[in-house]
């Protein structure tokens, strides 16, 4: 994830770096999802395997929806804030902000200087979205330590 953030404007603007980072993240996601599912099935009793599998898919899907929603909210809000800051509070700026957030095709109608400014704001907003994902992933990594399921005196 960190190479993606660095290549979206924090350190450099590099489409190949973003693509390579997305491939690495995608492969890692596939490995993690498969390994966790196998672990759940291996540790569930035969009659509970279906429930364990269903719960795994439920929480994976729920996490995806919540993650996408939160990230989209952060990106849209960061984009709005940056465009208003850079373009000012005029009626023309409000129109540009509204139209750019609705469709990227609106970029074609802007003058080159404004178009570049809007692209920079999009890059910064994307970096903010990835920042949220890194924060969430960090919290997940911290909280995923091994914790005993039963008190130590009951374990054999």
Biggest sheet, in brief?
none
Query: How much is the radius of gyration in Å?
Result: 21 Å
How large is the share of residues in beta strands?
under 5%
N-C termini distance: 40 Å
Model regions low in confidence, pLDDT < 50 over at least 5 residues: none
> What level of helicity do the residues show?
over 70%
Taken in chain order, the helices and strands follow as HHHHH
The computed structural class is mainly alpha
Calculate the mean pLDDT score and round it: 85
Categorize the overall geometry: elongated
Provide a count of the helices.
5
Number of strands: 0
Please tell me about this protein's structure.
With 156 residues, this protein is mainly alpha-helical. The protein is built from 5 helices and no strands. The protein is elongated and about 65 Å long. The model has no long low-confidence stretch (mean pLDDT 85).
Task: Name the descriptors.
single chain; 156 residues; mainly alpha; 5 helices; 76% helix; elongated
Outline:
The chain has helices at 2-7, 15-43, 49-87, 91-102, 112-143.
Question: Any chance you could write out the topology, listing elements then pairs?
Answer:
Layout: H1 2-7, H2 15-43, H3 49-87, H4 91-102, H5 112-143
Helix pairs in contact: 2-3, 3-4, 3-5
